[in-house]
Every structure is written in C-alpha cells, then in structure tokens.
Amino acid sequence: MEEAEKSSCQLPDVGVLNLGSGQGQHENTNQSETKLALRVDEEGNEDSAPATEELSTSKYSHPVYRELSILNGKINKMNVAQLKSHLRERNLDTSGKKLVLQKRLKSHVCQQKLKESGKEDETASHRNLYYDYYLVIDFEATCDEHQNPTTYRHEIIEFPAQLVSTKKGQIINHFHSYVRPLINPRLTNFCTNLTGITQDKVNFAPTFPEVLKQFEAWLEDRGLTSSETKMTVLTDGPWDMGRFLYQQCSISGVPYPSWGKQWINIRKSFCNFHKTEKMCLKDMLNHLGMRFQGQPHSGLDDSKNIAQVAIRLLKDGANLRVNEKINIRKDGSYNPRERVVNNITRHNFEEIKRKKGLVANNKNSNSSPDESNLENVSDSDCDDSKNEESEPLWPDTQDVKEFPDLVNANVMKEI
Fold first, then answer.
1. What is the pLDDT of residues 163-207, one digit of tens each?
2. Active-site residue among 33, 43, 67, 140?
3. The CATH classification of domain 2-127, taken from the options 3.40.50.300, 1.20.120.530, 1.10.720.30, 1.20.1260.10
4. I need a surface site. Which of 105, 117, 217, 354 has the fewest CB within 10 A?
5. Is 140 one of the catalytic residues?
6. Inter-CA distances, 86 with 10, 68, 108, 265, 266, Å
C-alpha cells in the first residue's frame, strides 16, 4: 500500500496537465491513446471515442479534445490507490470498484477541462437533468412459497415512496403506509419472515384504495402533480409497476394511475451507465462501494437504498431517463398477445422528450415546486438500442422465473 501511494505521487496531476507546455505532446500521443478521448452523451454515457482523424474535424478540432485523450489514457493506467488519491484531491467520492473510480475521475476532468477551454456549452445537456424529482417506489406484497407464481394474486401490503430532489441530490421526503390485504388477509410465515411485516401491522392498516388516495393527495399537496413539475417513478426492476401495482389495481377495481405508466428501471440504467451485467440491489451497492442500510425486503429500507444508488449515479454524471412502460389500454385492460411491460428505447424517449418538454432541465430552473414544503416527512439500459428489433428482451430469464406474466401475458388469469 505504501508503495502504491508513493507511485501515485509521482504521477503528473491530471488536473493541471498543460498541452501548451509541450509536456503532453511528447507523452502518449500515439494513435491508440488518442482514441481514448472521453465523449459523453446527454445521459452521461461514454460515446465511442473519436479516431485520430476525427479530432481534426471542426467539432473536435479544439486542442482540449486531444488533451482529454491523453488524460484519459493516464487515468486508464492508474491503479486503485492512484485513482483514490486523485479523487481525494478533488474532494470526490472514493468508494466503488476500479471502473467506477475511473469513470468518476474522467467525468470530473472532462467537465473541468471543457469549462476551462470555453467548450462547456457542448456538455450542457449532459450536466442538466430530464427530471426535477425521482419518486422511488418499492412495494412489498403477499407471497406464498407453495403457490404457483403465475396464478397467485399478490396484494400490496407495504407502500413506500422516497422523493429524491435531483437538484439537491438527496432524499427530501417520503411517504409510507402499510396496506390491509383482502384476498389473503392472513400473512404466511414465509411472507412475514421475508418482509418483516407482521400480522398486526396489516390488520388495522387502510385498504389499498384508501392508501392510493392518501398517496395521491400527498403528491398533490406538494405540487408534484403539476404539469410544470418534471417527476418520474424509479424502481428496482419491472415488477413493482408491471406486476404488483397492475394486479392490485385490478383486484381493487381502481384505474391504473397515470404516474405509474412509465418509469426508470434502475437495474437497466445502472448496467448501461457502468457497462456491467444486470445486478440486483445488493450487487449494485457493492459495485459502488456502498452497503445496504436497514433490513432487506423492507419496502421502506429497500426504497431508501435504491434512492442512494440513483443519487450516486446522478452525482457520477448519469442522466437517468424512463426506460420501461406498462402496456395497457386506456380502459386499464391489457392485450393478452403482448407483453405487459415494454422497453422505452432511446429512440422512443426522443418522442417522449418532445411531447413532455423534457429537454434537459437547467438545475437552477424556477419551474420546480417550493421544496420548503416538500421537506415535511409524511408517514401515512443494457438497453442502448435504437429500434425494437435489436433491443434485448426485458424482463430477462431471471425475471421470467419470478413473474412469468411480465413476458407472456397469456398465462395471466383474469382477476
């Protein structure tokens, strides 16, 4: 460790390397490292790097892009101790796997250099965000290990939501309520052991229609239903909206809420941003150097941890967008020949942006509701494709085992 720290001190400071001095021109200027230049799209993902000849075109002819290619080459060669040393010097987070640290440092250096060179406006859409708020939801529902998951009617028994301000990069409010199930009013031992929800917590809880009404009043009281407020639901996987909420609304005979028709599946966003395989919540936290706080499968604790993953992605430069939607008709029914949950590709999202005015928000926008009112706590892509044919099948085989009806609605019984 001592040797590693020493080597990090010998490395030129990536933040002050000046090509004009000639130092950078004699180091790492071969073609392979020139191709390492960092380019980010508006979602914070690295585009394929420009070739040497592309750097001479009008868009990338500015010397800063050649400088960035050299700096990125140096960052790629750093070990973990060196990366952490440079991150600490810039008061940046040092948690996470090596690739996470590399991306964090590259993103910071890129923004710094572009700002110094006057090219900052070219990354404005990357710095600004599509949404003012993420509404992080993680339902818990009745379950029975002995029942067939394709026919078992799950009922929501815990309804938590964390409100994340993208401007502040933190949770600013939460809603929480237990829900009394009606079809299976007595919880199984399996359900209680898994979720930590005891029978007495649901016995005197309000029913789902009552909780939904409370929740939507909570949204309205905080100005979150206004057309001027850009907010979207964020979940860990497709099940909360595509399985639990959809089935519960059918059971309770209430319309499926408009706020739940599109959402950010953080698993897809995470693997797309960090170029990893799809990970569960625990693995995403581990990849970021974070630990799960609280009790797993507690809806309230799960939603808090999911929110922390989203906040970390936000701080590392990701611009999260909706990437899934529920495939139901206007009357709330579904087409049994189609999937219940569909992808929203980048191409699809361009149309959504146009219709909803989701041109990356300026973080200083005055259109957001008054957050002084929001802070009163209430307690009541892996998918980079641009067309449907080439995009991967989501949910994948792991999801099919848990909820087969998400992929094949034919097996879903009418309720």
1. 999 999 999 999 999 999 999 999 999 999 999 999 999 999 999
2. 140
3. 1.10.720.30
4. 354
5. yes
6. 12, 16, 11, 32, 28
